[in-house]
Amino acid sequence: MDASLLLGFLAVALLAYVSPGPDWFVVLRSAAHPRRNGLLSSLGLITGLAVHTIAASIGVSALLLASAEAFTFVKLAGALYLGFLGIRALQSAYRTWKHPQEATDETSEREAGPATKVWASAFAANVLNPKAALFFVAVLPQFVHESAPVLPQILLLGGADILLGCVFWAAFTLTVSHFRTLLQRRRARIALDAASGTALVGLGGALALTSRTA
């Protein structure tokens, strides 16, 4: 593959990563607790990207976007899940504000929560977002040479995207965890949960209104 095409794709992928979206707020809330939680959330997102890469390589993503019924089902499931995560975050903000001691106990329980639950939450948020599939179907093919075998190029670009995601989310998690002491303060936790919850509910609503041609 032409190096210029690969670099161009990575530049576009990086722009997608740095643009705040559902993944940001999922990892942000997790990384504000033990660093392990943030890394597990990041791993969940990366696993979701791997699923999207495989789906794009075998044509599943294209079929999803071609079927109005399948697209609607996935986007509504994703919207509901983001709304669920957002409401949980808003409830956490309210409990922290109304019952400080109860919120402290909840935080301790969440810090000791099972790794699979933290991972699965991020994985589901990514996989149920049809915009991620849209990226692989609408953007990725623009960097594929028609004169060369398509499948190896899709896997190469998808792998490069996953590698870039590993670097980005690791850096994101480490940056957030660096301010963990500050973020664990009561007012900061209320602000973080309220902002994340509002953003996730809003993003869920926007996702529900997304069309296949968006």
From TrEMBL:
<keyword id="KW-1133">Transmembrane helix</keyword>
<dbReference type="Pfam" id="PF01810">
    <property type="entry name" value="LysE"/>
</dbReference>
<keyword id="KW-1003">Cell membrane</keyword>
<keyword id="KW-0472">Membrane</keyword>
<feature type="transmembrane region" description="Helical">
    <location>
        <begin position="154"/>
        <end position="176"/>
    </location>
</feature>
<feature type="transmembrane region" description="Helical">
    <location>
        <begin position="188"/>
        <end position="209"/>
    </location>
</feature>
<feature type="transmembrane region" description="Helical">
    <location>
        <begin position="73"/>
        <end position="90"/>
    </location>
</feature>
<keyword id="KW-0812">Transmembrane</keyword>
<feature type="transmembrane region" description="Helical">
    <location>
        <begin position="44"/>
        <end position="66"/>
    </location>
</feature>
<dbReference type="InterPro" id="IPR001123">
    <property type="entry name" value="LeuE-type"/>
</dbReference>
<protein>
    <submittedName>
        <fullName>Lysine transporter LysE</fullName>
    </submittedName>
</protein>
